[in-house]
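Hi team,

As requested, here is the filled-out complex form for the alpha-D-galactopyranose run. I kept the field names the same as last time so the parser does not choke. Let me know if anything looks off before we queue the next batch.

— J.
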Amino acid sequence: MKTLLFFLAGLSSIYTLDNGLARTPPMGWNSWERFRCNTDCLNDPENCIGEKLYMQIADRIAEDGYKDVGYQYVNVDDCWMARKRGPDGKLQADPDRFPSGMKALGDYIHSKGLKFGIYEDFGTETCGGFPGSKFFMETDAQTFADWGVDLLKLDGCYSNVEDMTSGYPIMEFFLNKTGRPILYSCSWPAYFVANDKIPDYKAIAKSCNIWRNYDDIQDSWDSVADIIGYYGKNKGNFSDVAGPGNFNDPDMIIVGNFGLSKEQQKSQMALWAIMAAPLIMSTDLRKIDPYSKALLQHKGVIAINQDPLGQPGALLVDMNQIQFWFRPVTPQGSVAFAILYTGSGGTPEKLSVQCQTVGMVGPGAYNVTEVFDGRFIGMFKPTDNINITVNPSGVFFAKAVYLG
Ligand code: GLA
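And here is what came back:
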């Protein structure tokens, strides 16, 4: 019995994700939502999936203030590969679109003080139809390490969902074996949910740093609101397993694109901060307007997103198109809360909200500050009421620091 216990303890340490990464939700950029699978570098050289795009984005992150507030990863998504593996079985970048090769791209990104992320798929093909990792996991993990990859997003198209529970941890094993710390982003639960299966989040958290739970984000408020609605329901209790080293990923930040109003952009930032979600922008940082840029770089919002407790928030009340969300943050006993008006009536809603209904439940008092404009609102006790105004598809976002 003793021997068996030792053996099991040994096994669990081999199979426990302990790469020291994602102590707070990762921050960076990914090409997918904004640039998709545009491989036409001949006619659209500025926007196609090629090394130039990632180098220019790395420049913008490094030089325009994004890096200074915490954005780090430059993530290449689908459609970077050549249609076939090389004669040695290794993945290769499309030679026309990535003429310098992936190692050189990684070196460039690193030279800017940033990190290099890449995309692959657990199945036989990526969602865009490029070679998948099935049967090549060890080779691919080593190839990525050789290229200096710091993050792997492993998608799940063209695979059998039943294989994921055993298969995703195998890629984790091979990533660890390379000796290079590589943040592991898994789409495993999203494919379970899409197939009406309940994911085993404890198992997922053992292998993955971050994981997609649900559908792809699109450039619209409908999509953002649908995602927020899904996370509010917390099906399968995925919030319970999140914390430093492990985060749920409601998908990319689309602030700066075409689909969201100013209010809706604030709502996405606030809710992603409350959910302790990765802040992975997918927008054209070469052309972004000052409003969206300032929002993406808002230090108060980022501080809540990156709060060292790493505890994701929860939906407390959902009534008459008003949602109360809260998240425990530091200093101890403090909370961040967001009141979201999901309705589309044209007039702002005026509410009088009792503090305990947004998570201020300590016996003492709280100093409450609105996050976006930094306005101090006052000192409140749990039974006091705060009067707020919230705009259609907008948010009231505040931090309540516990005074004891
Ligand atoms: C899936 C993923 C997306 C993106 C595309 C690429 O749909 O969920 O985030 O990576 O594949 O094809």
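Two things worth flagging: The chain is about 30% helix and 20% strand. The radius of gyration is 22 Å.

Thanks,
J.
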